Structures are given as C-alpha cells and as structure tokens.
## 1
Amino acid sequence: MIYCLDCAESAPMLSRALAKSLEERELTIDTGLARIFLISDILHNSALSSSRGATRYRSTLQELLPGACEQFGFWLRGKGRQSLRQSRSEAAVRQVLDCWRDWSIFPPLFPAGLEALLFAEITEDTDAKAKNDQDPELQAKLAHWQDPGTAPRAPYAARLRGLANSTLPVAACVLRLCHFERFWHSADPARRQRAGIRSPGEGEKATSF
C-alpha cells in the first residue's frame, strides 16, 4: 500500500492493472474477493493520503470500475450462485460497496450502479421485458431515460451512477440507466435504503442527472 502511494504518479497504470485483474475468466472466489479488497484498500488510503497524485487512483478507478465490474459480474453470477460460499462472497462484495458509499469516495449513486452491474445482466429491451414493466412509477422512470430529449444527458447521468465510462455511446448509456431503474425497483427495500434509493412510491432521492 505504501508502495502504491509512493508511486502515485503511476496511478493510471496501476489502476488499469487492478481493474483488468477483475476481468480474468478463470478467477477463484478467493482471488476475486482479494482483488476487490485490494482496490478498496487503495481507494481508502488514497482518500486519506496527502501525497501528491493520490487522488489519481480515485479518478482513474472511477473511469475503469464500471467496465471492470460488469465483467466481474459475469464471473460472480456464474460460480454456483446457490452455494453458501457464493452467497457469502456476494455479501462481501456488497459490504465493500457499502464502505465506498460511507467513505463518500465516489458520487452518491456510483456504488449503486456498480451493484446493478455486478448482480444483474444487462439485456436489450424486449416485448417480454416490457410486460414486466407495468408499475407506473417504473414506467415513468424508463420513459424519462428513453425520451430523445433526455439523451444528451444520459452519458453524464450514467457516469454519476457508476454505469459507464466517458467513452460509452449514448444508446448504451440509456440501456444501462434503464437497467439501473429495473434493478433497484425490484430490489429488497432494506437494500434500496442502504443504497440511498427510495422505495417505490416514496419518490427518488437522486436527481434526473
């Protein structure tokens, strides 16, 4: 950890290596969790450090984590998710996201977006999916993001929510924003509250951006 902070000028390179390590196909549960914990440790210590360039870790990882977590999610969901050990690993990842939220390292909804990428696959909108979107409040949120007038703001909104990096096309950002709304609309109420997202019928804590 001291080495990482002492070499903060190399934060972009080290951050890319860390993020890339989450995308390997043949991870063991222990290895995957160890890498998440290492990233968390670097984020925490760089936030506390007064060394020049330490904030580069946060800014670089903020750009890289959405893509890394989406790939890590494929691994996390595919490792026997019914097993007790898998349930514990998912709980451990959520605890890390909660720590990032408590530390205020990223924008408020950023960890919630990472959680949506980790624990649910993004799929294209279909007629079958539309049948499951009957709740009026959910329909209103989806319509907001699918409105062509909202499209110019979609990339910024997706980045604030931990759903995209700065190069993702508008259409992909809209798809991820709709994924975010569906994921949290159907989530456990206690989990929604922990993530800073209001339950259906209570309004939205976050802005439209």
Note: Confidence is low (pLDDT under 50) at residues 203-207.
## 2
Amino acid sequence: IENEKSVERVAECDFPSEFGHFRLYAYQDSVGKGLHLALVKGEIKADKPVLVRVHVENILFDVLASSQNSGWPFRAAMKQIAESNEPGVLVILRQQQDARDIVQWMLSPHEPAQELHPSDLRTHGVGAQILMDLNVHKMHLMTAPKRIHGLAGFGLEVVDYVAGKE
C-alpha cells in the first residue's frame, strides 16, 4: 500500500494567515478527481512526531461556523497547529457536497454532522498519501481516539491523540 498513489502534488506556495505562516500544498486526486490541500507549519522530520489534523471540508461548518459541528472546527485546528511548539500539518480533503444532502440536513438538523461527509477507507487513504508525501511518519493526531485501519500500511503511526474541540 505504501507505494500506491492516487494523489499527486501539483503546486505549493507560501501561505501567510491570521494564525501565522504556513506552506500550502495542492494535491490532485486521480480517482476522485478532487483537489485536496495541506497546510504545513515548520520543518517536518521523519523521525519526529508531527501534530496532524485531517479535515474533511464541509461548507456548513467551515464557512458558516455551525455550532452543531461534531468535530474540530477548521479554524480551531489551524490555530492549535499554529500555536504549537512543534511542526504541524492540516490536511483539507475537499469534496463536492450534494445539494440534496445539505437540504436534508437543514430539514433535520438534529442528525449528526458526520452524515454530510461519511468517513471511509478511501478518505483515509487519500489523507495518508498526502501525509507520506510531506514526510510525516509519526503523528500526534488531532481527533478523538479511534481505531483507524490501514495506516501502518502507509508507514504512518499514531503516537497519541490530541483532545480538543471534538
């Protein structure tokens, strides 16, 4: 699995933000045809753990800042990485949201936000490929503790989980 690639780095640039300086990378997904992004703070060294958040884009929560977000809000994750004393990576997995899914959520806002972007093995694989390209091997993963299958196949190791906004 470690050598299988469905994403390719297509661009990179400096990215000054309200939280400080990052490096922005763009990745083209040959299977899903999407363009994914990664914000990197600091210098990543393969033998050192890196603070990592893999974020699935969601317009209702990222742009409109709904308080019903069930995960780390995008800006909170970016701020946490910026304020950390260690290197960090925020992977942004972009996806088209079907208008019907958004309308359905609006009609039933009590349903979990995760319904709008179900996690699957392919999503984990795309994020893992981006992390490997950035030379990440050991991670302080910004998520609630959970079993994520297949990461070892990409040469990735979760050192620990970082609690936060979830």
Note: The radius of gyration is 15 Å.
## 3
Amino acid sequence: MIKLLNIQELQKSKWPELLHSTFGENLVSAFLHGNCLMEGFSALDSPWTVSFILKDNSPAVLAKAHELTKQAKRENIQFGYFFTPTELLKSLDTFPLEYLHIANRSAALCGIQPLAGFVPERAKLRLQCERELRGFLVHLREGFVNTKAGKALDKMMNEAIKDILPVLYGVYFLETGTYPESHQQVFERYPELKNENLITAIEGIVNKVDSMEEK
C-alpha cells in the first residue's frame, strides 16, 4: 500500500489529473476535508477524505468513480460527498455546520476552493449546534451509566470529547464570529471540558447555545 502522507504529496500526486480525466468538464472541485485536515490526523492510521462538486452527479456520472475506488483504497484515499452547485446552494441552511467546516478547513486538489467566503446564517447554525449537542448528551449519559468507572470510563469520555469537537467549533464561531485555528483554542474557551464532568460541561454549553436564541 502506498500512503500519501501530507497534503502537498497529494496535490503533487497523480490524483488531481486522474480525477480531472475521470470527470472532465463536469468536475467543479475535488477537495480534501473533514478529520484528515484536523490536528492529530495521521495518514498512517486513517484515510484522506476527498469530496466533489460536480455539475451533474447522476448515477451514470457517479459510476465513473467505481474505476478509481480500488486504487484510491490502496493509496489510503476514500471518497466522500458528491455535491452539485445547485444542491449546495439549496442546502446552505440545512447543513450550516458541515459547510462551515468545509469553507474554513478544506484543500482543493483540483478546481475551485469549495464554499469560499461562506458564512452560515446564524439562526440555522445555532439550531443545528443545539440539536447536535442535545443528541450527544443523550448518548453520553447512556455511555456514562453503562461504562465501568476507571480507565474504561476515562477512555470513553476522551473519545466523546473528540466526537463533539466539530460541533464545538460551530459554537465557538457563534460566540466569536471566527473559526477556531486549533482544538486548543476551543479548549481555552471552554476549559470546563477538561475541568468538569463532561456531562455537566456539555449541559452548560447547551444552555449557552439555547440562550443565543433570544439575542
């Protein structure tokens, strides 16, 4: 297995040209995003995620990706989402948190930079963050009750913090108007994540987000 270890290797590899030759003029953008661009990512342990904006994402067009998936897997690449420009525009208020991440933490392999300059509608982002946090709390309490105290519980809580960080980036944006540069910025703004029981900490953050509705 050949593993491309950093963004520069990917951008200089055969993949930009391979993707362009596969999708042709239909390709608007192919870009890296998600966990692979977050701190702590290691290409030795996890794959790169490449998503696409295509003028046409019909099944006939998507089938062209089949010829690349085996090779992509060998080189530690997985294909993610396949948007059209119209779908993106129509769903800006449906997935504001996901698009906030793509707009601020993505790297184009070919084509345009996705969602450049996108700023989510505050009310929609607040609602999604609240919904995600409340759902997270439901599962966190369940895990807390069903996990034995000690190392197992500590591990579960540490994993839970990793899982909720993308949502906390959205909360940070709601409070400051800026996208965090690092996890550390999030932890500095919400020190209770490490200084309190995680359930109590998230409950407090949910209350903050809930109170934003009145502003």
Note: The mean pLDDT is 94.
